[in-house]
Every structure is written in C-alpha cells, then in structure tokens.
Specification:
mainly alpha, 73% helix, Serine Threonine Protein Phosphatase 5, Tetratricopeptide repeat
C-alpha cells in the first residue's frame, strides 16, 4: 500500500507514504524506507522540498538505529540525492563523515 501511495500525484499522499515507514523503522525494518527513498528521489526525482525533508528525516531515523545501513545506502546514492535530503540524513554524523557525503553529493 505504501508504494501505491508513493506513486500519487498528490504531495501529501506521497509524504504520508514516506512518514508511515517510521513504524517499520522502529521495528528494525529498513527496506521499505530505503526502497521508497530510492524510488522517489533517485528514480522519479521528486522535486518537492517537503519530500526531500521527509525522506531525509526517515533516512536519519534509519541511521539512528543502524548507521551502517544508512551509510551503505548513501555510498550508493549520495551523489544523486537532493541536497536537503542528504543534509537531513547525515545530520548526526561526525564532521569528517558528513563532509565526505556532502562532497560526494556535489
């Protein structure tokens, strides 16, 4: 159902799909969040800043629970993520790690 919502033309419906993955994140399941992030930001290149913020926030929540999972995702996609999403996602990283991903994102 989340992936159906994520395909909507309506911004708030797409945003709800992303934020609803927080329940999965709290349960230690990250695949849904990572798949939606890849689909919306990398494949579809959703251009709305509110989507970038929501996805970056959920990526940061993944990183709070398993930083290696987040870093694996970022190693693959940081260069293609919108700057806002990337900044939200790496907010809790130490300065050298943050810098590495910001440079990769340029």
């Amino acid at each position: 159902m989340l992936f159906t919502l994520a395909e909507s033309d309506h911004l708030w419906t797409r945003r709800v799909a992303v934020l609803a993955t927080f329940a999965f994140i709290k349960a230690g399941r990250f695949a849904e969040t990572l798949s939606l992030a890849e689909r919306l930001l990398v494949e579809k290149q959703d251009g709305h800043d509110l989507m970038h913020k929501a996805i970056g926030w959920m990526l940061r929540e993944v990183g709070k629970r398993d930083q290696l999972v987040l870093e694996s995702f970022l190693n693959q996609f940081a260069a293609r993520l919108p700057r806002t999403a990337l900044r939200y996602a790496i907010e809790r990283f130490d300065e050298p790690t943050r810098h590495r991903y910001l440079v990769a994102g340029k």
